[in-house]
Amino acid sequence: MSTTNHISTKWLGNMSFESNNPSGHSLKIDIAKEDGGDGSGFRPKALMLSSLAGCSGLDVAAMFKKMKLEVDEFHIETIANLTDEHPKFYDKVVIEYHFHGENLNEKKLQRAVDLSIEKYCGVMEMFRQFAELEIKTVFHTK
């Protein structure tokens, strides 16, 4: 049985759109003023990077509990290269997982990252279809 997501995206005028989400929340999409928009919303390609980091981040955070890991702070930096020719797309993406804490279990945290990128994160799998991915894990101990 497959699942279908249905998203409705409504034009608000000029270059602005509002898009809903199955969660019941909406977000505004727009482009920069220099490109003819109002700069009042999220940019579509950048949202893809947020989706990638959010998807994988949720996997890793869920494993904090399962693996009883102590982490004070966790963030993901996503740096993507956009091609020059239209249609422009991300051909290379670096995903950096940053963990901060005093008692970081580096081996288990790396396992959590590996499980997300290799097994659980569907957005990661979608990106693999069109981009070269580079994964980095950085441990910041106090």
From TrEMBL:
Q: Which InterPro entries match?
A: KH_dom-like_a/b, OsmC/Ohr_fam, OsmC/Ohrsf
What domain of life? Bacteria
Cross-referenced Gene3D superfamilies, in alphabetical order? 3.30.300.20
Q: Which SUPFAM superfamilies match?
A: OsmC-like
**Protein name, entry field:** Putative redox protein
